[in-house]
Design brief:
227 residues; alpha/beta; Rossmann fold; 2 domains; 6-stranded parallel sheet; two-stranded parallel sheet; 9 helices; 41% helix; PGP-like_dom2; HAD_sf; phosphoglycolate phosphatase activity
């Protein structure tokens, strides 16, 4: 078993169960602008990304060249629709996740959350779950905190900087999309993990060649060593 000093977790689909509401809302916003794309298409081309970038990449995959003003208009509508969707949304963590986070804390492993959400959206989700800084996590890094989003390693590197971790070989990155795994590899994390609770399937995640692909994040307790 490889030892770790920092575990970096994606939020939605990995530690936060919000029933894919973000991607369903992204699908709705794009389709309201004149498209007819499926949720699976949104997940395939947009999962794990900063959401304006996701919109641009989805439209590009459709073979349509769109100007920045058009993609921004979709993004602004997405944010409005998401706020409406969140008003009555029940948000939970996945089974065993809080126990895993507590286990890591008790054994001296630092825990970071990173996400393609903006800070306001991320904090809204965390508030709905009752998660607090220093309790379930030690730092939150969002798309607002970096210039380059996934698959660039900047959010992981920012978390390492904030938490005083210098050896990326001692860092684990877990997420529910290929782009999460690519982010971890680009940050030279010692362990990368795909989990099938969110955006993508076992086969899709395995294609990115992570260290592990799991059906439940809580299984990590049996696969890693803590310092």
């Amino acid at each position: 078993m490889q030892k770790i000093t920092l575990a970096v977790f994606d939020m939605a689909g990995t530690v936060v169960n919000e029933d894919n509401i973000v991607y369903k809302t992204l699908q709705k916003a794009i389709n309201e602008s004149g498209y007819d794309i499926s949720l699976n298409y949104v997940l395939e081309h947009g999962a794990g990304k900063e959401k304006h970038q996701a919109i641009q990449d989805i439209l590009k995959a459709e073979g349509n060249k769109t100007d920045l003003e058009f993609s921004i208009s979709i993004f602004e509508n997405f944010k409005k629709l998401l706020n409406q969707a969140y008003e009555n949304l029940h948000v939970t963590s996945y089974s065993g996740v809080e126990e895993l986070l507590d286990y890591l804390k008790k054994n001296g492993v630092k825990r970071a959350l990173n996400t393609g959400y903006d800070t306001d959206t991320a904090n809204l989700l965390l508030g709905k779950m009752g998660w607090e800084l220093g309790s379930q996590y030690d730092v939150l890094v969002t798309s607002d905190d970096v210039t380059l989003g996934r698959p660039h390693p900047d959010m992981i590197l920012k978390a390492m900087e904030l938490l005083g971790v210098t050896d990326s070989e001692m860092v684990l990155k877990a997420g529910d999309s290929i782009i999460d795994i690519e982010e971890g590899k680009n940050a030279k994390c010692g362990i990368t993990v795909g989990v099938t609770t969110g955006a993508q399937t076992f086969e899709q995640l395995a294609s990115a060649r992570p260290t592990f692909v799991l059906d439940e994040l809580s299984r990590l307790k049996d696969l890693i060593a803590v310092v």
